[in-house]
Structure formats: C-alpha cells, structure tokens
Specification:
single chain, about 110 residues, mainly alpha, elongated
C-alpha cells in the first residue's frame, strides 16, 4: 500500500471539475465512518454476510483514494467473509485506519 494515497481516480471521475471533485470527496468523508461502524458491528456479531456487504462498499472508497493493494486486500477479505474465513481482518483494519487518517487531511 502506498504511504501517500492519491486522488487520481477521483480526479478522473470529476473529469476536470473541481466542484464535482470536492463533492465526491465529501461523499466519501460523510459515508465512510458510518459504513466502518456498521461493518464493525456486523463483524462483532458474526453477521459475516452483512459485513461482506459493508466491505464491498468500503472497497470502492479504498479504490477511490488510490489504494490498489488495499483494494485487492478488501476483495480478498470480502471473499473470506463470505467463506467465514476472516483471516485478513487485522490488515484490512489497518487499511481502514490509514484511510480514516487520510480523510482528516482533505
């Protein structure tokens, strides 16, 4: 995972519009904490299929900020949850924490 996340994907989606770029960032910043909270609750209660749905949404936010390795880890973790094998949990949480820290800077 890159130490410095980039906004290439968001810039591509915004197609040169600074206003749209800020709206996309705003959506991610607003939705990310709630999805993370829901994921943690579902994981803690062994609702792995619901947690996998949360990971699916979080995966796209990870991808938005250029975390290619994090995106692949999320894909693997999502599959693991579906198979009740959450072996990548600690690594995935590190990725979520790093994105959370990054979101505070933008």
């Amino acid at each position: 995972m890159s130490e410095t996340p980039n906004l290439i994907y968001i810039k591509e989606l915004a197609a040169g519009s600074a206003v749209f770029e800020q709206k996309l960032i705003g959506i991610v910043k607003r939705e990310f904490p709630e999805e993370k909270k829901e994921f943690l609750n579902n994981y803690a209660t062994n609702a792995y299929s619901k947690a996998a749905e949360n990971v699916h949404k979080l995966k796209h936010k990870i991808g938005m900020f250029g975390y290619e390795e994090g995106y692949q880890t999320a894909i693997n973790f999502e599959e693991g949850l579906k198979d009740n094998d959450p072996s990548l949990y600690s690594k995935f949480m590190l990725i979520l924490e790093s994105i959370e820290q990054f979101l505070k800077t933008i």
